[in-house]
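testing teh design pipeline on a random one, pls ignore if ur not involved
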């Protein structure tokens, strides 16, 4: 600890303090710029959203009714999608059961395939032995 205190004594200590202050100032400026840009973007979005609806509503009184109908249709479509998504876990469980069943069947078929391979080997050996017996006097 004493070595650190001795190393930061005098001019290096002032340089370190100056560097920390400069970095803190730069961070503050960066945060201020980010906040300023966010405010500008949010103000631009608010005006862009409100202005067309207000001008259309004043020009055509039935535009609001059309927008409301479109929104109702979208809400109805989203409700249907929500109902469909709620039934997905049930369908998923059914599919998992089918997969488990098919995997068990596949295991059985693999066993049968191995047995068929063994039987065909035994058949060829049986034919070879029959020929060998037939060739002996």
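output:
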């Amino acid at each position: 600890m004493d070595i650190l205190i001795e190393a930061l004594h005098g001019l290096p200590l002032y340089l370190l303090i100056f560097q920390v202050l400069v970095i803190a100032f730069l961070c503050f400026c960066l945060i201020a710029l980010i906040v300023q840009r966010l405010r500008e973007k949010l103000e631009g979005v608010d005006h862009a959203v409100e202005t067309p609806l207000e001008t259309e509503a004043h020009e055509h009184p039935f535009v609001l009714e059309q927008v409301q109908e479109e929104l109702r249709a979208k809400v109805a479509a989203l409700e249907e999608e929500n109902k469909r998504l709620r039934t997905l876990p049930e369908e998923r469980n059914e599919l998992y059961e089918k997969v488990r069943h098919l995997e068990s069947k596949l295991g059985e078929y693999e066993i049968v395939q191995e047995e068929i391979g063994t039987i065909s080997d035994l058949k060829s050996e049986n034919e070879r032995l029959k020929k060998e017996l037939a060739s002996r006097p």
